[in-house]
Structures are given as C-alpha cells and as structure tokens.
Amino acid sequence: xxxxxxxxxxxxxxxxxxxxxxxxxxLEKEVDFSYVVGVSAGSCNAVDFVSKQFDRTRHCFMxxxxxxxxxxxxILKKHSIFDMDIIFDKYPNxxxxxxxxxxxxxxxxxxxxxxxxxxxxxxxxxxxSDRARLMQMCRASxxxxxxxxxxxxxxxxxxxxGVSDSIPLERTLDMGYEKVFVVLTRNKGYRKEPSPRMDRxxxxxxxxxxxxxxxxxxxxxxxNRQMDMVExxxxxxxxxxxxxxxxxxxxxERNRERxxxxxxxxxxxxxxxxxALIDYLEK
Length: 283
Description:
- By secondary structure, the chain is α/β, with parallel strands linked by helices.
- The chain is about 45% helix and about 15% strand.
C-alpha cells in the first residue's frame, strides 16, 4: 500500500541497522511512502527501501567479514575509518548488488541530505537515472567530518548531512506532507551536549570554512531543537515516531551479535507498532 506520507530516516552510522530492521518489516508488509528523506546512514536505508531490497542494508552493516569496511588500509591510505569505496562501489556493484532499475522506476520521491562544506547548509539531492551519482550522493551524506574525507558532488564538496539537518522533519513538512513517520536511532529524551574540546578541533581542521565551523559547533543546539519539535509533534499526534527502547549500539559497532540484536529490535518494534502506524496513516 502506497501512502501519501513522508518517511524521515535519522543517521547514526552503524546504529542505522535499527532502521534497517524497521524498514525490512515494512517491506514484508508492502507498506510504502510517497516521500522518503535519509540522512547519513539513513540515506543508505532510504535507497534500499525505495529499491525494495529486503535485508540488503543489514548485510551492508554486518558483512560476512566482520571488519570488511573498517580496515587498516582505509585508515592508512584513505584517511578514513570506514572504507567508503567498499561501501559505495564494491558493495552496490558486486558484493551486495543494488537494484538500480527498481529504484529509478519507483514513484517515490527520495531525497538524500548532505552538508555543503563551503557554506555549512543542508542540500537535498535526488537522482532518477545516474547510478554513479546516486551512490555518490549517499557517500556525501555519510561522510562524517574527521572520520571520512569530504566528498565531491556536482562540483562542490560535502560532508555528513547530519551536520546541518540530522532529522529533516521540517523539510518533510515544508514539502507538504501532513502525515510523517520518523525513524530515530537514539532513545527517547536523548539530547546532545556542547563539546568545547571538539569545537577547537573543528576550528583548526576546517579553518578555511568558517560557516561550516559555525554549524559544527552549534550542531548540538540544532539537534536538540529538532528533537524538541519531534517530541512535541509526536505528543500532539501529528507525526508517528519509532525509536530504540534498548541501549543503542555505538556508531562504530563491529560485534555481529550486538548488531544483529539491534536489527532485530528494530524489526520487532515495528511489528509491535504496525497497526498503530497504519491507523495513523489512514485516519
């Protein structure tokens, strides 16, 4: 069933495997949305959901070789904790093939959020035919500052979409969607704290990009205001939210048992709340 509604997917690196569980259940039940927006790891979940590839995201988050995309070679030669070439080239074009044909044939509008390095602003990308550009969009959205290099896209450089718009709920409402389903990867009530030590790192590392530095140093405030909005609209019954109810894994979790537990938790949470979600979407 295709619902005229928005689906908002938060990032969180490997915590995104919770979202994979949520979406895999929805894929099984053929619940679909006319608009999907993904941030960082949420972008990977978003494209796999639109391409209707059950279990693909889980495989990418926990590949057969436990450390497949977290390698010494990536750290030493590519200056990246995660080997982005493996995730956004080797996987979709071979190891865990991405169904580009189904994705491009979908009637769902899918937007991927990335942060422009030059001005610190969020940009929302779509792609309807170019396979390489679609994966580059997801790579840009997932490029965490300091952890992975910035990514060139359409002549500009980008970092993680979560820097400028961690939870693009406002974007979804501005797109005209009155029904919105938000998938979070943190527990209810979570808020970020300012980090003066990291602020000094940002100012030094991105000294040529003052607008990006400003966004990075104030990210905690933006995130907290977004969470305030999420919880307020959730309480008012205007949006539907699902989130973990167990302790989240770390953003760089590598233990397969913990990853699988978090995935199953997402699947079970969605199974429990499926009827409530449908009621919300249909009322």
